[in-house]
Protein backbone atom coordinates (compact mmCIF):
# COMPACT_ATOMS: atom_id res chain seq x y z
CA UNK A 1 0.00 0.00 0.00
CA UNK A 2 1.02 3.64 -0.46
CA UNK A 3 2.02 5.32 2.78
CA UNK A 4 0.78 8.77 3.74
CA UNK A 5 3.53 11.43 3.66
CA UNK A 6 3.40 11.64 7.48
CA UNK A 7 3.72 7.88 8.02
CA UNK A 8 6.96 6.33 9.22
CA UNK A 9 8.89 4.98 6.26
CA UNK A 10 11.22 2.10 7.21
CA UNK A 11 13.66 3.24 4.54
CA UNK A 12 13.97 6.55 6.45
CA UNK A 13 14.12 5.12 9.95
CA UNK A 14 16.08 7.01 12.59
CA UNK A 15 18.01 3.79 12.97
CA UNK A 16 19.11 1.38 15.67
CA UNK A 17 21.43 1.88 18.63
CA UNK A 18 23.81 -0.60 16.99
CA UNK A 19 24.13 -0.33 13.21
CA UNK A 20 23.20 -3.43 11.22
CA UNK A 21 23.07 -4.36 7.57
CA UNK A 22 19.51 -4.37 6.19
CA UNK A 23 17.66 -7.64 5.88
CA UNK A 24 17.29 -8.87 2.27
CA UNK A 25 13.56 -9.66 2.41
CA UNK A 26 12.12 -7.62 5.30
CA UNK A 27 11.74 -3.94 6.10
CA UNK A 28 13.23 -2.60 9.32
CA UNK A 29 9.87 -2.58 11.09
CA UNK A 30 9.01 -6.11 9.95
CA UNK A 31 12.35 -7.17 11.38
CA UNK A 32 11.47 -5.50 14.70
CA UNK A 33 8.14 -7.32 14.82
CA UNK A 34 9.81 -10.67 14.20
CA UNK A 35 12.39 -10.08 16.93
CA UNK A 36 9.64 -9.22 19.40
CA UNK A 37 7.57 -12.32 18.56
CA UNK A 38 10.61 -14.57 19.08
CA UNK A 39 11.62 -12.95 22.38
CA UNK A 40 11.39 -14.68 25.75
CA UNK A 41 9.47 -11.75 27.23
CA UNK A 42 6.77 -12.08 24.57
CA UNK A 43 6.19 -15.74 25.36
CA UNK A 44 5.80 -14.93 29.06
CA UNK A 45 2.82 -12.69 28.29
CA UNK A 46 0.62 -15.78 27.91
CA UNK A 47 0.76 -16.26 31.71
CA UNK A 48 0.49 -12.59 32.70
CA UNK A 49 -2.97 -11.28 33.39
CA UNK A 50 -5.10 -8.26 32.63
CA UNK A 51 -7.82 -7.99 35.32
CA UNK A 52 -8.30 -11.59 36.43
CA UNK A 53 -5.31 -13.54 37.65
CA UNK A 54 -4.03 -16.46 35.63
CA UNK A 55 -5.45 -19.14 37.92
CA UNK A 56 -8.97 -17.68 37.89
CA UNK A 57 -10.00 -19.06 34.49
CA UNK A 58 -8.68 -20.21 31.13
CA UNK A 59 -10.79 -17.87 28.99
CA UNK A 60 -9.97 -14.49 30.55
CA UNK A 61 -7.64 -12.17 28.66
CA UNK A 62 -3.91 -12.31 29.25
CA UNK A 63 -1.27 -9.77 28.28
CA UNK A 64 -0.60 -11.90 25.19
CA UNK A 65 -4.17 -12.01 23.92
CA UNK A 66 -4.56 -8.31 24.73
CA UNK A 67 -1.42 -7.46 22.73
CA UNK A 68 -2.74 -9.46 19.75
CA UNK A 69 -6.07 -7.64 19.92
CA UNK A 70 -4.32 -4.26 20.02
CA UNK A 71 -2.21 -5.28 17.01
CA UNK A 72 -5.30 -6.36 15.04
CA UNK A 73 -7.21 -3.14 15.77
CA UNK A 74 -4.12 -1.05 15.13
CA UNK A 75 -3.39 -2.62 11.76
CA UNK A 76 -6.98 -2.19 10.60
CA UNK A 77 -6.96 1.52 11.44
CA UNK A 78 -3.44 2.07 10.09
CA UNK A 79 -4.41 0.57 6.72
CA UNK A 80 -7.28 3.03 6.35
CA UNK A 81 -5.10 6.00 7.33
CA UNK A 82 -2.07 5.13 5.19
CA UNK A 83 0.13 4.62 8.24
CA UNK A 84 2.76 1.89 8.56
CA UNK A 85 0.99 -1.32 9.58
CA UNK A 86 4.20 -3.19 10.39
CA UNK A 87 5.37 -0.50 12.80
CA UNK A 88 1.95 -0.41 14.47
CA UNK A 89 2.07 -4.19 14.88
CA UNK A 90 5.59 -4.14 16.33
CA UNK A 91 4.69 -1.48 18.90
CA UNK A 92 1.44 -3.23 19.82
CA UNK A 93 3.12 -6.59 20.37
CA UNK A 94 5.86 -5.05 22.52
CA UNK A 95 3.97 -2.44 24.52
CA UNK A 96 3.33 -4.70 27.54
CA UNK A 97 6.61 -6.65 27.62
CA UNK A 98 7.64 -4.92 30.85
CA UNK A 99 4.41 -5.54 32.75
CA UNK A 100 4.75 -7.31 36.07
CA UNK A 101 2.82 -10.41 37.10
CA UNK A 102 -0.67 -9.76 38.51
CA UNK A 103 -1.48 -6.80 36.27
CA UNK A 104 -1.63 -3.28 37.71
CA UNK A 105 -1.62 -4.63 41.26
CA UNK A 106 1.85 -6.09 40.72
CA UNK A 107 3.07 -2.91 39.05
CA UNK A 108 1.85 -0.71 41.90
CA UNK A 109 3.40 -2.99 44.53
CA UNK A 110 6.74 -3.09 42.72
CA UNK A 111 6.73 0.69 42.34
CA UNK A 112 6.19 1.00 46.10
CA UNK A 113 9.05 -1.41 46.76
CA UNK A 114 11.33 0.59 44.45
CA UNK A 115 10.32 4.03 45.79
CA UNK A 116 13.77 4.58 47.33
CA UNK A 117 15.56 3.19 44.26
CA UNK A 118 14.16 5.14 41.32
CA UNK A 119 10.66 3.66 41.22
CA UNK A 120 9.17 1.31 38.66
CA UNK A 121 7.36 2.28 35.45
CA UNK A 122 6.07 -0.55 33.29
CA UNK A 123 6.50 1.39 30.04
CA UNK A 124 10.10 2.10 30.92
CA UNK A 125 10.49 -1.55 31.88
CA UNK A 126 9.23 -2.59 28.44
CA UNK A 127 11.99 -0.44 26.96
CA UNK A 128 14.53 -2.03 29.34
CA UNK A 129 13.41 -5.45 28.14
CA UNK A 130 14.04 -4.69 24.46
CA UNK A 131 17.16 -2.55 25.08
CA UNK A 132 18.94 -4.51 27.82
CA UNK A 133 17.31 -7.56 29.34
CA UNK A 134 16.68 -9.85 26.37
CA UNK A 135 19.76 -11.99 25.69
CA UNK A 136 19.63 -13.26 22.11
CA UNK A 137 22.46 -11.73 20.13
CA UNK A 138 26.25 -11.98 20.46
CA UNK A 139 27.15 -8.35 19.74
CA UNK A 140 24.73 -6.42 21.95
CA UNK A 141 22.22 -6.67 24.77
CA UNK A 142 18.51 -6.51 24.02
CA UNK A 143 16.82 -6.74 20.62
CA UNK A 144 18.36 -3.63 19.02
CA UNK A 145 15.03 -2.36 17.71
CA UNK A 146 14.58 0.76 15.60
CA UNK A 147 14.05 4.18 17.14
CA UNK A 148 10.46 4.23 15.90
CA UNK A 149 9.47 0.99 17.63
CA UNK A 150 11.27 1.96 20.85
CA UNK A 151 9.61 5.40 20.78
CA UNK A 152 6.20 3.75 20.58
CA UNK A 153 6.95 1.31 23.39
CA UNK A 154 7.77 4.18 25.75
CA UNK A 155 4.19 5.44 26.00
CA UNK A 156 4.66 7.23 29.35
CA UNK A 157 7.81 8.33 31.14
CA UNK A 158 8.50 10.57 34.13
CA UNK A 159 10.63 13.62 33.52
CA UNK A 160 13.39 12.27 35.76
CA UNK A 161 13.60 9.04 33.80
CA UNK A 162 13.40 10.93 30.50
CA UNK A 163 16.43 12.98 31.61
CA UNK A 164 18.32 9.76 32.41
CA UNK A 165 17.51 8.35 28.97
CA UNK A 166 18.52 11.62 27.31
CA UNK A 167 21.87 11.56 29.10
CA UNK A 168 22.57 8.07 27.72
CA UNK A 169 20.99 8.65 24.32
CA UNK A 170 20.99 12.35 23.33
CA UNK A 171 18.08 13.14 21.04
CA UNK A 172 16.69 9.65 21.56
CA UNK A 173 13.40 8.22 22.76
CA UNK A 174 13.37 10.25 25.98
CA UNK A 175 13.65 13.60 24.25
CA UNK A 176 9.95 14.10 23.47
CA UNK A 177 9.03 13.96 27.16
CA UNK A 178 11.34 16.91 27.73
CA UNK A 179 10.30 18.82 24.60
CA UNK A 180 6.58 18.05 25.04
CA UNK A 181 6.29 16.80 21.46
CA UNK A 182 4.35 13.79 20.19
CA UNK A 183 5.50 10.32 19.17
CA UNK A 184 4.89 9.06 15.62
CA UNK A 185 1.33 8.72 14.35
CA UNK A 186 1.80 4.94 14.51
CA UNK A 187 2.65 5.19 18.21
CA UNK A 188 -0.33 7.48 18.80
CA UNK A 189 -2.53 4.92 17.05
CA UNK A 190 -1.26 2.09 19.28
CA UNK A 191 -2.11 4.13 22.38
CA UNK A 192 -5.71 4.54 21.22
CA UNK A 193 -6.03 0.94 19.99
CA UNK A 194 -4.87 -0.16 23.45
CA UNK A 195 -7.73 1.80 25.04
CA UNK A 196 -10.31 0.46 22.59
CA UNK A 197 -9.16 -3.12 23.10
CA UNK A 198 -9.09 -3.18 26.88
CA UNK A 199 -12.45 -1.43 27.26
CA UNK A 200 -14.09 -4.02 25.01
CA UNK A 201 -12.44 -7.12 26.41
CA UNK A 202 -12.89 -6.01 30.02
CA UNK A 203 -16.63 -5.82 29.36
CA UNK A 204 -16.48 -9.37 28.01
CA UNK A 205 -14.36 -10.70 30.87
CA UNK A 206 -16.38 -8.81 33.45
CA UNK A 207 -19.67 -10.30 32.29
CA UNK A 208 -18.09 -13.77 31.94
CA UNK A 209 -16.89 -13.54 35.54
CA UNK A 210 -20.34 -12.58 36.79
CA UNK A 211 -19.02 -9.38 38.39
CA UNK A 212 -20.90 -7.09 36.02
CA UNK A 213 -24.15 -7.70 34.12
CA UNK A 214 -25.78 -6.63 30.88
CA UNK A 215 -28.35 -4.79 32.99
CA UNK A 216 -25.61 -2.73 34.64
CA UNK A 217 -24.07 -2.00 31.26
CA UNK A 218 -27.39 -0.47 30.24
CA UNK A 219 -26.28 2.57 32.28
CA UNK A 220 -23.50 3.21 29.75
CA UNK A 221 -24.75 5.06 26.68
CA UNK A 222 -21.87 3.90 24.47
CA UNK A 223 -22.60 0.22 25.08
CA UNK A 224 -26.38 0.43 25.39
CA UNK A 225 -26.74 2.08 21.97
CA UNK A 226 -25.21 -0.97 20.29
CA UNK A 227 -27.07 -3.46 22.48
CA UNK A 228 -30.32 -1.75 21.48
CA UNK A 229 -29.31 -1.94 17.81
CA UNK A 230 -28.58 -5.63 18.22
CA UNK A 231 -31.92 -6.41 19.84
CA UNK A 232 -33.83 -4.35 17.27
CA UNK A 233 -32.32 -6.41 14.47
CA UNK A 234 -32.33 -9.74 16.32
CA UNK A 235 -35.22 -9.58 18.84
CA UNK A 236 -34.98 -13.28 19.74
CA UNK A 237 -31.22 -13.24 20.39
CA UNK A 238 -30.19 -14.50 23.81
CA UNK A 239 -27.20 -15.27 25.99
CA UNK A 240 -23.63 -14.46 25.11
CA UNK A 241 -24.49 -13.69 21.50
CA UNK A 242 -26.17 -10.48 22.67
CA UNK A 243 -22.98 -9.46 24.45
CA UNK A 244 -20.66 -10.42 21.60
CA UNK A 245 -22.72 -8.68 18.93
CA UNK A 246 -23.05 -5.53 21.04
CA UNK A 247 -19.30 -5.42 21.66
CA UNK A 248 -18.57 -6.10 17.97
CA UNK A 249 -20.75 -3.19 16.91
CA UNK A 250 -19.21 -0.91 19.54
CA UNK A 251 -15.69 -1.84 18.41
CA UNK A 252 -16.53 -1.20 14.76
CA UNK A 253 -18.07 2.17 15.59
CA UNK A 254 -14.97 3.20 17.55
CA UNK A 255 -12.65 2.11 14.75
CA UNK A 256 -14.59 4.06 12.13
CA UNK A 257 -14.79 7.05 14.47
CA UNK A 258 -11.00 7.09 14.94
CA UNK A 259 -10.48 6.83 11.20
CA UNK A 260 -12.81 9.73 10.43
CA UNK A 261 -11.62 11.99 13.26
CA UNK A 262 -7.96 11.32 12.49
CA UNK A 263 -8.37 11.85 8.76
CA UNK A 264 -9.91 15.24 9.54
CA UNK A 265 -7.10 16.15 11.96
CA UNK A 266 -4.42 15.01 9.50
CA UNK A 267 -6.05 17.03 6.73
CA UNK A 268 -6.11 20.17 8.87
CA UNK A 269 -2.53 19.85 10.13
CA UNK A 270 -1.19 18.53 6.79
CA UNK A 271 2.15 17.25 8.13
CA UNK A 272 4.54 16.55 5.27
CA UNK A 273 6.68 14.01 7.11
CA UNK A 274 6.70 11.77 10.17
CA UNK A 275 8.94 14.24 11.98
CA UNK A 276 6.60 17.13 11.16
CA UNK A 277 3.69 15.10 12.58
CA UNK A 278 5.64 14.75 15.84
CA UNK A 279 5.64 18.55 16.19
CA UNK A 280 1.86 18.85 15.75
CA UNK A 281 -0.70 18.24 18.51
CA UNK A 282 -1.82 14.63 18.85
CA UNK A 283 -3.58 13.81 15.56
CA UNK A 284 -4.83 10.25 16.15
CA UNK A 285 -8.02 10.73 18.11
CA UNK A 286 -11.68 10.00 18.74
CA UNK A 287 -14.34 12.53 17.88
CA UNK A 288 -15.45 14.49 20.94
CA UNK A 289 -18.69 12.48 21.42
CA UNK A 290 -16.86 9.15 21.14
CA UNK A 291 -14.10 10.33 23.50
CA UNK A 292 -16.77 11.24 26.07
CA UNK A 293 -18.46 7.85 25.63
CA UNK A 294 -15.19 6.00 26.02
CA UNK A 295 -14.34 7.98 29.16
CA UNK A 296 -17.74 7.13 30.69
CA UNK A 297 -17.17 3.44 29.94
CA UNK A 298 -13.75 3.56 31.61
CA UNK A 299 -15.27 5.16 34.71
CA UNK A 300 -17.94 2.45 34.81
CA UNK A 301 -15.34 -0.33 34.57
CA UNK A 302 -13.18 1.30 37.23
CA UNK A 303 -16.05 1.51 39.71
CA UNK A 304 -17.87 -1.74 38.93
CA UNK A 305 -15.11 -4.14 37.84
CA UNK A 306 -11.59 -3.04 38.79
CA UNK A 307 -12.75 -1.97 42.27
CA UNK A 308 -15.21 -4.83 42.77
CA UNK A 309 -14.63 -6.38 46.22
CA UNK A 310 -13.75 -9.76 44.73
CA UNK A 311 -11.15 -8.23 42.41
CA UNK A 312 -9.79 -6.03 45.20
CA UNK A 313 -9.36 -9.04 47.49
CA UNK A 314 -7.35 -10.95 44.89
CA UNK A 315 -5.27 -7.95 43.88
CA UNK A 316 -4.53 -7.23 47.54
CA UNK A 317 -3.13 -10.74 47.86
CA UNK A 318 -1.12 -10.23 44.66
CA UNK A 319 0.41 -7.03 46.04
CA UNK A 320 1.45 -8.92 49.15
CA UNK A 321 3.10 -11.61 47.03
CA UNK A 322 5.15 -9.01 45.16
CA UNK A 323 6.14 -7.11 48.31
CA UNK A 324 7.25 -10.29 50.09
CA UNK A 325 9.15 -11.54 47.04
CA UNK A 326 10.98 -8.22 46.82
CA UNK A 327 11.92 -8.32 50.51
CA UNK A 328 13.10 -11.92 50.30
CA UNK A 329 15.34 -11.37 47.26
CA UNK A 330 16.68 -8.08 48.58
CA UNK A 331 17.78 -9.72 51.83
CA UNK A 332 19.19 -12.81 50.07
CA UNK A 333 20.02 -12.14 46.38
CA UNK A 334 21.41 -15.69 46.07
CA UNK A 335 17.78 -16.85 45.90
CA UNK A 336 17.68 -15.36 42.38
CA UNK A 337 19.47 -16.85 39.35
CA UNK A 338 23.20 -16.16 39.35
CA UNK A 339 23.14 -13.51 36.61
CA UNK A 340 20.66 -11.42 38.61
CA UNK A 341 22.32 -12.08 41.98
CA UNK A 342 25.71 -10.92 40.64
CA UNK A 343 24.57 -7.46 39.56
CA UNK A 344 25.80 -4.44 41.54
CA UNK A 345 22.42 -2.67 41.65
CA UNK A 346 20.61 -5.27 43.71
CA UNK A 347 17.22 -3.47 44.03
CA UNK A 348 17.00 -2.97 40.26
CA UNK A 349 18.07 -6.57 39.68
CA UNK A 350 15.28 -7.72 42.00
CA UNK A 351 12.76 -5.51 40.20
CA UNK A 352 13.87 -6.84 36.81
CA UNK A 353 13.59 -10.42 38.02
CA UNK A 354 10.14 -10.00 39.55
CA UNK A 355 8.83 -7.98 36.59
CA UNK A 356 9.80 -10.83 34.27
CA UNK A 357 7.81 -13.42 36.21
CA UNK A 358 4.54 -14.92 35.11
CA UNK A 359 1.65 -15.01 37.58
CA UNK A 360 2.04 -18.69 38.32
CA UNK A 361 5.82 -18.58 38.70
CA UNK A 362 5.57 -15.63 41.10
CA UNK A 363 3.00 -17.52 43.18
CA UNK A 364 5.22 -20.63 43.29
CA UNK A 365 8.32 -18.61 44.21
CA UNK A 366 6.42 -16.82 46.96
CA UNK A 367 5.32 -20.15 48.42
CA UNK A 368 8.89 -21.51 48.20
CA UNK A 369 10.44 -18.52 49.90
CA UNK A 370 7.81 -17.81 52.56
CA UNK A 371 6.03 -21.12 53.08
CA UNK A 372 2.71 -19.30 52.66
CA UNK A 373 0.16 -19.79 49.89
CA UNK A 374 -1.81 -16.64 49.21
CA UNK A 375 -3.06 -17.40 45.70
CA UNK A 376 -4.77 -20.76 45.27
TrEMBL record:
Please name one Pfam family that this protein belongs to: HD_assoc
MF terms per GO, please? dGTPase activity
Q: Kindly indicate whether the keyword Flavoprotein belongs to this entry.
A: no
What SUPFAM superfamilies would the database entry show? Answer: HD-domain/PDEase-like
Instruction: Please list the GO biological process terms of this entry.
Output: dGTP catabolic process
User: Which of UniProt's keywords are assigned here?
Assistant: Hydrolase
- Record keywords: Thylakoid included? no
What range(s) does the HD domain occupy?
63-199
Q: Which Gene3D superfamilies match?
A: Hypothetical protein af1432
Q: From which domain of life does this come?
A: Bacteria
Q: Which family does it belong to?
A: Belongs to the dGTPase family. Type 2 subfamily.
Record protein name field:
Deoxyguanosinetriphosphate triphosphohydrolase-like protein
